[in-house]
Amino acid sequence: MFRARPEARPATIEVLVEGTPVLVPEGASAAAAVLLAGLPAIRATPVTGSPRAPLCLMGVCFDCLAEIDGVPNRQSCMVPAAPGMRIARQHGARAARP
After folding, report:
1. What is the pTM of this model?
2. What are phi and psi for residue 30, nearest 5 degrees?
3. For residues 46 and 55, what is the distance between their CA atoms, to the nearest angstrom?
4. Which of 17, 48, 59, 84 qualifies as a FRET site for 41, CA 20 to 30 Å off?
């Protein structure tokens, strides 16, 4: 029913996922960058340590929590990728700040 126009080529931007440059389509989310990077997981649960990766991609499951530009505990599926963005795995639960 819907097809992409063959002449339309999306612009790409470069982000860093775990320090590795990844090209993502402009307008994609940070979670999409994680998936394009091919990481097996972006975080581990703080309770059991089981691996998690982006799942629902609409802000419901919280399995995509990541450290983005040095800020932990961000839902990567809700954050638009920006040129030069740094996305890193989240380790454990974010510590509460006093």
Report:
1. 0.81
2. -65, -35
3. 18
4. 84
